[in-house]
Design brief:
The complex is a heterodimer of chains A (928) and B (343).
Chain A (H helix, E strand, L loop, with lengths): L1 H10 L26 E5 L5 H6 L16 H9 L3 H12 L9 H34 L2 E5 L5 E5 L8 E5 L7 E7 L5 E5 L1 H4 L4 E5 L18 E5 L11 E5 L2 E5 L4 E2 L4 E3 L3 E8 L5 H5 L9 H34 L1 E2 L2 E2 L18 H15 L6 H20 L13 E2 L11 E6 L6 E12 L2 E3 L5 H10 L3 H10 L25 H13 L4 E4 L6 E4 L3 H12 L2 E6 L3 E7 L6 E12 L7 E7 L5 E7 L1 H4 L11 H13 L2 E11 L1 H16 L5 H12 L4 E12 L3 H10 L3 E5 L4 H10 L8 E5 L4 H8 L3 H26 L6 E6 H7 L5 H10 L2 E5 L3 H15 L2 E6 L5 H6 L2 E5 L6 H4 L3 E3 L4 H32 L1
Parallel strand pairs in A: 17-29, 17-33, 29-32, 30-31, 31-32, 33-34, 34-35
Antiparallel strand pairs in A: 1-8, 2-3, 2-4, 4-13, 5-11, 5-13, 6-7, 6-12, 8-9, 9-10, 14-15, 16-35, 18-19, 18-28, 20-21, 22-23, 23-24, 24-25, 25-26, 26-27, 27-28
Helix pairs in contact in A: 4-5, 5-10, 8-9, 10-28, 11-20, 13-14, 17-18, 19-28, 21-22, 22-24
Chain B lengths: L1 H10 L26 H28 L2 E5 L13 H6 L6 E7 L8 E7 L7 H5 L3 H5 L15 E2 L2 E2 L5 H4 L5 E6 L2 E3 L1 E2 L6 H7 L30 H7 L7 E8 L8 E7 L11 E6 L9 H27 L11 H4 L7
Antiparallel strand pairs in B: 1-11, 2-10, 3-9, 3-11, 4-5, 6-7, 6-10, 8-9
Helix pairs in contact in B: 2-9
The chains are: A alpha+beta (928), B alpha+beta (343).
Chain lengths: 928, 343
Amino acid sequence: MAGNRRKKHHFSRIHAFSCGKTSFKGDHSLIGGPGFSRVVHCNDPESFEASVLNYSGNYVRTTKYTLATFFPKALFEQFRRVANVYFLICAILSFTPLSPYSAVSNVLPLVVVIGATMGKEVLEDWRRKKQDIEVNNRKVKVHCGEGAFDYTKWRDLKVGDVVKVEKDEFFPADLILLSSSYEEAICYVETTNLDGETNLKLKQALDATSNMHEDSNFQNFKAIIRCEDPNANLYTFVGSLELEEQQYPLTPQQLLLRDSKLRNTDCIYGAVIFTGRDTKVFQNSTGPPSKRSKVERRMDKIIYFLFGILVLMSFIGSIFFGIATREDLQDGKMKRWYLRPDDTTAYYDPKRAAVAAVLHFLTALMLYGYLIPISLYVSIEIVKILQSIFINQDLHMYYEETDKPARARTSNLNEELGQVDTILSDKTGTLTCNSMEFIKCSIAGTSYGRGVTEVERAMARRKGSPLEEEVTEEQEDKASIKGFNFEDERIMNGSWDNEPHADVIQKFLRLLATCHTALPEVDEENGKISYEAESPDEAAFVIAARELGFEFYERTQTSISVHELDPVTGTKVERSYSLLNVLEFSSSRKRMSVIVRSEEGTLLLLSKGADSVMFERLAENGREFEEQTKEHINEYADAGLRTLILAYRELDEKEYIQFNEEFTEAKNSVSADREELAEEIAEKIEKNLILLGATAVEDKLQNGVPECIDKLAQAGIKLWVLTGDKMETAINIGFACSLLRQGMRQVIISSETPESKTLEKSEDKSAAAAALKASVLHQLIRGKELLDSSNESLGPLALIIDGKSLTYALEDDVKDLFLELAIGCASVICCRSSPKQKALVTRLVKTKTSSTTLAIGDGANDVGMLQEADIGVGISGVEGMQAVMSSDIAIAQFRFLERLLLVHGHWCYRRISSMVCFTLKMLIDKLG
Amino acid sequence: MKGRRSSSDSSSSSKTKKPQYSKFTQQELSACKPILTPGYVIGIFIIVGVVFIPVGIISLFASENVVEIVDRYDEGCIPPNYSDDMLAYIQNSDTNKTCTRSLKATKLMKSPVYIYYQLDNFYQNHRRYVKSRNDKQLWSKKHEDETKNCAPEATSNGLSIVPCGLIAWSLFNDSYGFSIKNKMVKVSKKNIAWESDKKHKFGSDVYPKNFQNGVLIGGGKLNSSIPLSKQEALIVWMRTAALPTFRKLYGRIESDIQANDSVTVIIENNYNTYSFGGKKKLVLSTTTWIGGKNDFLGIAYITVGGLCLFLAISFILVYVVMPRPLGDPAFLSWNRHPAGHQI
């Protein structure tokens, strides 16, 4: 408990982002209009106005059925299967004299079959129900009048309630943050369940409500919140809070979403605005698309075929029956007298032979009903459930480290695993383990770091050079600090002071220690500091700075404190930088900057970012080390490392004040283009930078990935890598995991060429796009020619294409050519691809080649791809549960794919198909 | 990161999700899966061929030993003046239905010589016909009035018919008398029905009632003083045939018929097959261990055996001319069409 105290104190002053006053602009004018009609009477859910609105309660139901709807709904589901409808008709007809056999023998199998499948539904639904009951009966403290908070079940929560959520609890509904245990009314939220991101997010309440820290404050609290109607958008929110006749704007910054978790904050007070099904997370939940395996689809076709035969047989039989019946009695003469055609019922009446024939047709349909294998569906269902159990129970696919066995989430696709033709794989977290290690850096034109990367090792192995042995020796005596694999006596342990450009090294390390958004977490027992960072790259940087003597240990709203190693005295000095602005990282900006004021009073803009955006922002006098740094970056990229450029700039006071004014205004505007506005202003100040150097972190390959890929290739399965990384990194990972080999000729299709760059800068956007497309097309045609002419003699081809080219390659008129080329190549790597492109590529492969595709990925950005592919395999790794939730099968490590496909897939396919064939054979036997 | 992991570990207790080891769940139960190598396949084919061909020959031989005389008499027994309107002849109760046929035994026929009648184009398997009986009524006196399914031969003048239904109503009623070398031969009509039918299906206390006394007379009449279980001709008839051409046992001649003996048959030609164009045949046949005359079984055995031998020989030839190692991955589908994935 004592530790918690300390932590509270420690975290209470953290503030990573400067949150200015927000004003009413843009979307807020919509409040009250259509789509923005919700009115919440805070702390007064029982009032007349609130009861008029009658918003639904917080009871959630994820079950498919209720007690009342189960039978109609489940039966409807069952009879969507054509075979079942047929059997139902037969069962009804079997109660008429038409039936060739007794009703029981007709109804019983149908009842058993439908009963079995419905039983399965009940079982599955019961599991969901239990989960629902658990969730609905969770307790949360709710204000119950007179300033007292009491525990209430989640299900009884109403819109307008004020709740108190404590540390590490889930939010029971979508809340508006009113205040927290921190002075500044901030809180930290973990949203792993929503978007799969593991980093903490900061939320802050409005100033107007932020001072209510005690339960008793809420005794007389009254406010009205007007906001948008329930929708599925997790990242936008528009609303306003009316408190004491004053209007305050609400933004996503105040919104706490259900199913996210309160972290690092003792407690918060919030007003419930969306409950139950209205919450954003429920609005977002869509069932996974139901996928059916090829065997099942083929089986359906066979059954349709059999049904066709059945109808044909019955039809022909009925015609002959009709003719024979009509002839039985002609001109009063009986032909087959022993049938007494003169005295008969409608079924055999020669005078109405047509009617008799129609009735006979129905009888025949029932009689030949053996042709439709009713039991097959049930047998398949049972076999598949057993097979899923085998997959779930496989010890070879159990990952000790995270305690995760394989999980077949749908049993439908077991046998499809044995059919896979193309695997589309994500890179980060799937092929690699998404843990970054700081391994090299280039400072002031000198490269530091003696570590050897996985990629270099793989290349050495391929070349058969003796490097390998040295490496293993070196590896053993390495101290194991997670995220740090740096080895260089020149700058370790403070000896950087003796290097030339020591001042640059100092600035470099200082930048590493200050330019980030990580939070330090001090272990009370040994005083060690660990970091909570937005991305593993960032954590690696802060750790590296710590290991190299610049220990970042405290962050407040306005300052960053670092223990620095003073080169002169050799002692640790505490330095604190007042933090003025954070210009956050975004994928479009590809850089982040902080503006700090040092203790000496100088204003510094510290910046780090991708080489593509950083070099063009350097000042004329800041390019001293440009050439060497570029060279080093290329070297690092060759070694499979991720690189970032570090640069800084001193600001003068006037410039900063002007920037700050503009920036604050931009940030405070609530209009839709706020982001762009802020970016534009940030763009203005992030220029004329002075280059310090570059960092390189290694993205470690998962265990056994190259071997697994090798095996899959031997089995004739193609692997495409779809990654968001840049081309060089992707190529290097490709080499590391034996996807690319020395003998291969690479067809690189890129839009990052100098010509295309100049094209992009030109004014006429459409012309530029057309020209780019033409260039991509040209490259594709060249690649195709190479493919046609080569014919194996020169070694297989590898296609590498970047995201921008992919946009054009996926356009309707080009995509066939692209696909032809891609299929001809042994390996395909798509880099810089967006989640949507991943899904598009998957769809293209799936539909155009009609081969079975398997997508494997671990992040929220792979969800589209997983759902689009025939089989989606989720890696239950670090990046949260989003991918697993939308996958068909979840495994813990990429290498388990080998066993999943080559053992389980193979067996499941064989067994299911033998069973189907055997059952069909039995049918034919029965007929004979 | 580290802090969080340790805290979640402690909260989720020491329960591990590691699957339990068992030979079943790990699919390690010992199993046997024969691989059909060329050796096995050729061996099996040869064995099948070697076994089947002699069996077929023996069966054919046995079938050849059966002596069978078939005589179609439906047209031959019509007097010439009725040949234009056979139906009128058969339906007229006043015409003389007696007809004499002479047959010749080609070989020695050892007793017992079975007498069959063979009907053609008679659909005993018609759905209406098959169902038109009441098994309860046939079995016990208690259910005499049970005539469900029997319509239109359920009641006659308001009284229920025993045995009811179309099958019994259309009972075959031609009769045959035999004389060999002008000497009358006794025809045994006992024990021609199934033992089980007599004991469990046709009651010994059920006597025919109101049978064949309606407006339309179908086939034969029954002696109403003999219980159904003793009416073996009826029992045979009521075991309906599955195909429109069928033979039913009429009786046995308990003496040998020498080769070239002339057999005279006096036929009471009562049964109407003329309206539906059916044939009537009289069959005299001996039996051997495979039953009556049946060449099909022998031919089938020989054909299958021959086919197996042929396959075995062609496999041997293929094996000699184009041998290939077992399990050669070069023949896998993706290796036959290389797309650059050779490792």
